[in-house]
Design a protein that fits this description.
2 copies of one chain form a homodimer. By secondary structure, chain A is of the alpha/beta class. Chain A is built from 17 helices and 11 strands.
Chain lengths: ~525, ~525
């Protein structure tokens, strides 16, 4: 379909429906009608409560028409089967398959992309063997100590996803295991982390698909230097996770290497070796497989043709509705779980790098606004911070809440008649109601306009499987939105210019002759004053 | 002045100027003209490079006219002197002074609000004495161990600011001292932190102005219970930071109490005892005073009448220009310093809770858009994440970069001919240039439209004094923007409705009879299914 989305009949229909969206503040709009109990979608281990979105039956029917007309599920299945979706028709582009889903399609007898899944299985087998050797102390540090700690050095996709999932599942870590992360080229980042661990018990995992990432190679050198200063042999502590044929493929320098494949983009790589090495080390293989199974379940669920029974698709369409038809430029993701404190940062990357685009996959300017600005912090913390603006600001912010019925540690205490977990849930739900319903008041400063839309994603408990569900839910949501906008959600040409200009500035710094009048050169002189 | 801002002549003039804002992509727009070297503002220890904003001399002159017409500096000085600015004329409101500036106005012979500064000094003297007793081991834990660790339990303003500044200054911590933070009512937050420290060597600081904050009291109970289970006496480990007359004023339960005053709002309280207790414990008093001095210097600088010589004022006006005249709904704050990784979260609170308002201080609906959505992550990390959208998305995001000429730890290593610190700076500057200048290209997917505005805040090194500069810079900026919008930047009525609805839900949970058809009740039943 090369017709612009905005020129389709269904797009025009949605514009008309959005002229008078469902009024959540009207009497009886939310309660007493069965709306709350009806507007629920379940996929894999998660449910979506969406009564607080500004939609009615007509809009949901139009969603189905949009999904069918744009063949969103069909394209998703083509992706899973290995279609070359990372491309711009008629222009030089990466021209690659998009097969992050294959890295967890391990549990079916007929994986959709058998070759890629076979490669994933080989790497997992190698990882399992490696972790067994570490656990059994066949592999020891260069002074003979068993490994307790892993430092992950990577940036962007090689950092945010693995970090978010490790943080989320810390309650499931094996006793005595810890993982730390270094990303920033700021040398203080590596200094602080390296100073906080016992290097002689530490594995350092270097993650870079190209094997040429400036930040990662620089931090690797800092880390190797720290090992050498401590009289330790880096080659017995360092692991590589890198692309086939990358300059990092060097058995002399690494204890082990694990492969990344060009059909998995960085921001979608958490279920590949990029995430699996730290997670396997910290959680053990059983929990790692539960996590991968959770992701696979959600991929499978995203293939359901009915919008109302397909959580990723429905979440994608609420995003389209709020962005393109109600006109809201941002999306807040607010998990009511401290363990998910870095999950919004991962989704910020995954969403904004995928869908922050202005050119369609046909090389033409987009005809509608694309990816929103995605941001968020955990609740209840945010309630005491930026929620003021969510309730009474002049900018309307759609919200995706995430909550769980049970906590992770099982440590809780009734205070004033309720447990902490009950307080957490009560607060989450109260916020959704307050945003939607608003409240009138004599004092104008105590009025709440309401009609601020939200969804609630509910899981039973944040365990490895549920985390897999959540990760794959958002990956699928983002991809499906890209299909609607007709963009390539898998490249990142927008980061190239900055890289190129940084290289030019570094050349100036190296040569020590910054006298010219390039913009960067002038700015550098001013900065250094 | 009760005239609406939008009805003033200067507002209308700015609307006309914004019809054709300065084109940063035109040939010679940035280099060769001296623009970069001229468009620099210095206040206290910081400089602002603002050549990459879409302004020219006419706009800057109009800024001065706006600042004078709205008496922004005059009102700021009135605030510092104790004016009752936390109020809504003609309606019930908090009716309080706004005197966070007094908590650091310690270095002048004539403080602007002498009574409040005297109170701050008394608390600091008490803190100094306490820290001396801890250092000299006159005070020991209940099993006789010296204190090495402090856990701060607070939320919102009692958490984000102190946490951001502690993280920023970790390089200056005294050897053997550490501070951890618990905020979330999610019981996993406290469980994880309490399990990671040796309680017998730990002080627990409970921070709540009202002494009734749900999350904080709940976490206090969890922590006290952990102490009792470990055979330790909480009364010998727990400190209180609370308002005069709060229910937490109880010497039986706390080793020491420090006072908060009602004229300092939570999100502005980092330089009061709310931040000083953890910072004094970790940094020592000398560094703490350097931090307070840095903040006082910037408050002083914010009193300068000339826009071009007043960094907080200028930063405030770029925000107004981008929000109200160029129409951008968000602001990204991107520190090129890993130590500032939580500073954007603090500013998100301070800005959005202050200025996310729809009612003026006269109780009327605002006539222009107020506070933007503030978000951000450290660079260079973000470059590998969401910068794609900054460069090529359909939404334009103004950026405030923060960078330092030197790093904190002094540990660096030349790799490929440049140090990490040089790489960090080169990347920061390259991003600003790329956003502003853009680039044409045959391949439409490699085009950059440019004209995406940014400022660069430059400091020498992120030390305690510079951190004080930065904190006070943003506090003053936010307050001055509130003056332009004619709102009360010091209340937070928008958080009340959610609190009230949460209490109702908790009552339902306590009674165990959730059968009715309130919206919250129905939602709770659905959530629990």
């Amino acid at each position: 379909m090369k017709t612009k989305p905005t020129e389709t009949t269904i797009w025009q229909k949605l514009i008309r429906l959005a002229e008078k969206p469902y009024d959540l503040t009207a009497p009886g709009a939310l309660s007493g009608s069965g709306r709350i109990g009806t507007m629920v979608c379940r996929s894999a281990g998660l449910r979506l409560l969406y009564a607080m979105q500004r939609v009615d039956e007509q809009v949901l029917t139009a969603f189905q028409e949009l999904a069918d007309g744009f063949d969103l599920v069909g394209r998703f299945q083509e992706m899973r089967g290995g279609a070359v979706l990372n491309r711009i028709d008629g222009w030089p582009s990466e021209n690659r398959q998009v097969l992050h889903t294959a890295s967890r399609d391990l549990f079916s007898e007929n994986p959709l992309a058998p070759a890629a899944t076979a490669q994933a299985k080989r790497e997992l087998t190698q990882l399992e063997r490696f972790i067994w050797e570490v656990d059994e102390r066949h592999l020891l540090g260069s002074t003979g100590k068993p490994f307790t700690t892993m430092v992950n050095i990577g940036i962007g996709g090689s950092d945010l996803g693995p970090r978010a999932v490790n943080e989320a599942l810390r309650a499931y870590y094996r006793p005595g295991r810890q993982v730390r992360f270094v990303a920033n080229v700021d040398p203080d980042d590596a200094s602080a982390v390296l100073a906080s661990v016992d290097l002689s018990e530490t594995l350092v995992t270097i993650v870079s698909k190209s094997g040429t990432t400036l930040e990662t190679l620089t931090n690797e050198e800092l880390a190797r230097s720290a090992y050498r200063s401590g009289g330790l042999d880096p080659a017995r502590h360092f692991l590589a996770v890198t692309g086939v044929g990358s300059p990092m493929e060097d058995p002399q320098r690494y204890l082990r290497s694990f492969a990344m494949f060009d059909y998995i983009g960085g921001r979608y790589s958490t279920t590949s070796m990029v995430g699996c090495v730290t997670l396997g080390f910290a959680l053990g293989m059983e929990h790692l497989y539960a996590f991968l199974r959770g992701a696979a379940e959600m991929d499978e669920a995203a293939g359901h043709p009915a919008v109302r029974d397909n959580l990723p698709l429905l979440l994608a369409l609420f995003g389209i509705w709020n962005r393109n038809f109600l006109g809201y430029p941002t999306l807040a993701i607010l998990p009511y779980s401290q363990a998910l404190h870095r999950f919004p940062a991962h989704l910020q990357q995954c969403d904004m790098e995928s869908n922050g685009k202005s050119i369609t996959r046909f090389g033409e300017p987009v005809s509608a606004a694309t990816g929103p600005i995605v941001w968020g912090e955990p609740g209840t913390n945010g309630q005491h911070a930026f929620y003021q603006l969510l309730h009474q600001g002049t900018e309307i912010v759609p919200v995706e809440f995430i909550g769980f019925r049970e906590n992770q540690y099982g440590q809780d205490l009734p205070v004033d008649g309720t447990s902490s977990q009950q307080k957490l849930i009560a607060n989450l739900l109260a916020q959704a109601v307050a945003l939607a319903s608003g409240r009138d008041h004599d004092n104008p400063n105590r009025r709440f306009a309401g009609n601020r839309p939200s969804s609630i994603i509910v899981g039973n408990r944040l365990d490895p499987r549920t985390m897999g569900n959540l990760l794959a839910l958002y990956e699928a949501k983002i991809v499906m939105q890209g299909f609607v906008w007709q963009i390539n959600s898998f490249d990142q040409e927008g980061v190239q210019l900055g890289k190129q200009l940084a290289t030019e500035l570094l050349d100036l710094l190296k040569s020590g002759t910054n006298n010219g009048s390039t913009i960067g050169g002038e700015l550098l002189r001013e900065f250094e004053k």
